[in-house]
Design a protein that fits this description.
With 130 residues, the protein is an alpha+beta fold. The protein is built from two helices and five strands.
Length: 130
């Protein structure tokens, strides 16, 4: 059995710009994804962490970090399809939290960049779930 925990926002550091954003100003975002192995004597799992920074004119507007984890029975075998589904679900929750929390910031008309799954090395993550 696979259990997904609630996504926890570990950092939401918002730095409002000193002046209004002009139409020619570009907001850039950078998102990274990290995975960590979790294990106890009766379960195994992974923790997924997404980090996103929004920058305008070389100034950070928002640093946003969210963590999600999966707890899996030791006997369960996870394949690439299931792992991909798990990562997508985690990113979806991460995006939902952003969509809600961005209201009231200068980022209210901004979206997170989609998750680029081609950059995720599933073969490196799967051994963490053995």
């Amino acid at each position: 059995m696979i259990e997904q925990t609630d996504l926890v926002v570990t950092d939401w550091n918002y730095f409002p710009p000193e002046k209004a954003i002009a139409p020619e100003d570009k907001i850039f975002s950078y998102t990274s994804f990290d995975v960590m192995r979790k294990r106890v004597s009766t379960k195994k799992g992974i923790a997924c962490r997404f980090t996103c920074s929004f920058v305008i004119n070389n100034n950070v507007i928002l640093e946003y970090i969210g963590e999600d984890s999966y707890v899996i029975d030791l006997a369960d075998i996870i394949d690439k399809t299931e792992l991909t589904r798990m990562i997508r679900n985690s990113f979806s929750k991460y995006n939902e939290k952003f969509e809600f929390r961005k209201l009231g910031t200068v980022l209210q008309h901004t979206t997170l960049s989609p998750l680029d799954e081609s950059n995720i090395d599933l073969d490196a993550i799967l051994p963490l779930l053995v």
